[in-house]
Design a protein that fits this description.
Elements lengths: L6 H5 L8 H8 L2 H11 L2 H9 L3 H28 L7 H22 L6 H24 L1 H5 L6 H30 L6 H25 L20 H10 L1 H20 L2 H12 L3 H9 L1 H18 L1 H25 L10 H39 L4 H16 L2 H10 L16 H27 L5 H31 L1
Length: 497
């Protein structure tokens, strides 16, 4: 039997591939990202219990710092471009960012709790946390394109990241609320904050060390060079990337519109209206969320195979269309049945659960394809301009994404205000009026359909197909070889002199 051809042999490109253990260890950075994310979900308790910040002011601070977060993501590109040592840059940036993040979190949740330092101290610590978080998070986003440029393997990296990011928060939620909360006496007090932050920082350090081990082979100076000599990054270079990188424009439009719709649909007031009012069983939301984890990961694995076979762009388009069909089917489903029957064992419950799992799984496939498509846009930029600029691409997207998605809560609250919830919020057990049903279906399924439609429009004129990516990788390889020869020739000429 003839040996199966590798993707490199099929495409005629010497692809860079990662070993499975490298991918797994890289994805283990989720022990840091997910645990810190879970901890920061409780930052309002740290602000109130530890620093005496009023509830109203907490919301203002968190909103303002989100804007700062978006700006620092973009500015980080300049730091990333300039950090070049004989030990590489990835591990240095990750551990430096973690040090800043860890110190600020330890002070915020432990050492300075109850010292009467007030709002200014909390704001300063939160800003330092954002700086550390930005350094780690943005560095992590630049790693997948370095690990592999094999179109079949690249989506697999996203699957492992998805699996870690699904499982870790679920387990941590149980640890926080069942183990640590009980040890702290059952209330979110200073002792709870101290035990939680210490546990999180140990877990985060462990995750970062594993990640650094996994990426050690790719954290080399030569991997960060472009295909030609370029000047240090300037603001005009970032603007030039956004103006001329058409696939990046398509990606930003597609991913941001999807994100805004999904953020709106997952607002607590919207999920309360669907499960607590329309269906009449609020606990069902939590149960389905837990059970859906395994199907979602399986879908992600299938979506990765599809993206590897047909290309990231086609995968985004095809799975998006399926998402639109399933969302439309769920909308019609709720209009033709008595929604209360979904909460009772029977045919309607089975149909809803199947459609819900299928929709969530297909969303996961879109997410997986989006991750590999971002890596493709980074390689496209390397081919187009000669500059290796992963932090520029991810930073610009992050800026626009965070600004747009921050409107999710505004859209959700404005929507429920149109049906009378101006001074109160929807509560489980409220009557299912026509207005409640309409707004719930529009926010949960209608708005995502609009976002997916924008995705299809944005991707329509995008030329970055699987076939084009093969050509891109060939051109990059040729240009790098040419640049290498020019460098060697220059060194020989210098030696002769």
């Amino acid at each position: 039997m003839a040996n199966k051809l590798t993707q490199s042999e099929i495409d005629g490109v010497a692809y860079r591939r990662a070993k499975l253990w490298q991918i797994v260890l890289f994805a283990a950075n989720a022990f840091c990202g997910s645990s810190v994310f879970m901890l920061m979900n409780q930052s309002s308790y740290a602000a109130s219990v530890g620093f005496g910040v009023s509830t109203a002011l907490i919301g203002v601070i968190l909103t303002a710092t989100r804007i700062l977060d978006a700006l620092t993501d973009t500015m980080f590109a300049f730091v990333y471009d300039r950090v070049n040592t004989k030990y590489g840059k990835l591990r240095i940036l990750i551990m430096s960012g973690f040090f800043i993040e860890a110190v600020s979190l330890f002070l915020m949740f432990d050492l300075l709790v109850g010292k009467g330092l007030g709002t200014p101290a909390f704001i300063v610590l939160y800003i330092f946390y954002i700086l550390g978080y930005t350094i780690i998070n943005m560095t992590i986003q630049t790693i997948p394109p370095l690990l592999s440029n094999d179109p079949r393997q690249r989506p697999t990296i996203g699957v492992w990241m998805t699996a870690f990011n699904y499982v870790i928060p679920t387990v941590l939620g149980l640890v926080f609320n069942i183990v640590i909360l009980r040890l702290a006496g059952g209330t979110f007090n200073a002792l709870y904050l101290k035990m939680t932050v210490r546990f999180v920082l140990i877990l985060a350090f462990f995750g970062n060390v594993l990640c650094c081990v996994g990426i050690s082979d790719i954290d080399k100076v030569e991997n960060f060079r472009g295909t030609k000599r370029v000047e240090p990054l300037k603001i005009k270079d970032m603007i030039e990337v956004v103006r001329h990188n058409k696939p990046l424009q398509s990606y930003i439009a597609a991913a941001s519109s999807d994100k805004l719709a999904q953020v709106t649909a997952t607002q607590s007031i919207i999920t309360t209206m669907l499960y607590g009012i329309v269906i009449g069983n609020m606990a069902m939301s939590t149960i389905l969320g837990m059970v859906a984890m395994i199907p979602a990961i399986l879908f992600a694995a299938g979506g990765a195979k599809y993206a590897g076979r047909y290309g990231s762009k086609k995968a985004i388009v095809d799975w998006t269309i399926i998402c639109m069909v399933l969302s439309g089917a769920l909308s019609v489903f709720f209009l033709v049945i008595d929604p209360k029957t979904v909460a009772r064992p029977g045919l309607t419950m089975i149909i809803y659960v199947v459609l819900n799992f299928a929709l969530n799984g297909c969303k996961m496939c879109v997410t997986t394809a989006n991750a590999s498509f971002m890596a493709d846009t980074i390689d496209y930029e390397l081919d187009r301009s000669g500059r290796y600029a992963p932090a520029v691409v991810s930073g610009v997207y992050s800026l626009i994404d965070k600004i747009i998605s921050s409107f999710g809560a505004v859209i959700a609250t404005a929507a429920v205000a149109t049906i009378g919830y101006t001074k109160t919020v929807p509560q489980p057990g409220d009557p299912t009026t026509t207005g409640v049903l309409t707004i719930t279906l529009c926010a949960m399924y209608g708005l995502p359909i609009v976002g997916w439609f924008i995705t299809l429009v944005a991707m329509k004129d995008c030329k970055l197909t699987k076939e084009e990516m093969v050509k891109v990788q060939k051109r990059i390889a040729d240009k790098k070889e040419e640049a290498k020869n020019e460098f060697l020739e220059a060194e020989l000429h210098r030696a002769d002199i």
